Amino acid sequence: MTRDDILDAAAQVFRQKGFHGASMSDIAASVNVQKASLYHHVKSKQEILLALLDRALVMLTNHIAAIAAQEISADQKLRQMIRAYLSALADNTDLTSVLLFEHRSLDKKSHTRHVPQRDKFEELWRNVFKEGVRAKVFDCKDVDMAVRALMGVMNWTLTWYRPEGEKSIEEISDQYADLFFKGLLKDVNK
């Protein structure tokens, strides 16, 4: 049993029971060890939560940063970022569920440590929006609001998306991008 095994198991337990509903005994049982043995690898449930949030943010940041750094137009970047982000959420549901739904369970010290990493991730999105505004590709009066709206829509997808469902995550990504770029109104100039 490794620390990674513990983190993988804890992500699954936290996703199923929530941080507050999960116990160290639940995590130990999921990796088939005694609770006392678990404490040789981790100090607390809070430490596990912070490690999972760090792991998720590093993974997501790496996915998105690679796209954001490409020499393509801002709208192409944003479309690819939406697809990569939703694919990462869908491919890592235990880990990303913990990030999206359990971050509020961090204690004050851990939260203070977590926030700069979260802000770094969100800044990648803001920068692409700002790039699009500068290039006159996007007409966006409030970049922060637009990023929050897009992130909210994408993050909520994790609550209802099913791999065996009617639409693939790629189809959902494309439809979100189309909705975001084109809006709901018909072109009245046609």
Describe the structure.
The protein has 190 residues and is mainly alpha-helical. It has one domain (45-182): Tetracycline Repressor, domain 2 (Orthogonal Bundle). The chain is built from nine helices and no strands. It has helices spanning 3-17, 24-30, 35-38, 45-68, 74-91, 93-102, 108-134, 143-160, 169-182. α1 (3-17) packs across α2. The mean pLDDT is 94.
Number of strands: 0
Q: In terms of structural class, how would the helical and strand content be classed?
A: mainly alpha
CATH class division: Mainly Alpha
Strand content: under 5%
Averaging pLDDT over every residue, what do you get? 94
Query: How many discrete structural domains?
Result: 1
Instruction: Please name the fourth-level CATH homologous superfamily.
Output: Tetracycline Repressor, domain 2
One letter per element, helices H and strands E, the order comes to HHHHHHHHH
Question: What percent of the residues sit in helical stretches (DSSP H or I)?
Answer: over 70%
Rg, Cα atoms, Å:
19 Å
Biggest sheet character: none
The multimeric state of the shown protein is single chain
The geometry reads as elongated
The second-level CATH architecture is Orthogonal Bundle
Total DSSP helices = 9
Tell me the span between the first and last alpha carbons.
Answer: 64 Å
Query: Which stretches of 5+ consecutive residues score pLDDT under 50?
Result: none
What is the CATH third-level topology name?
Tetracycline Repressor, domain 2
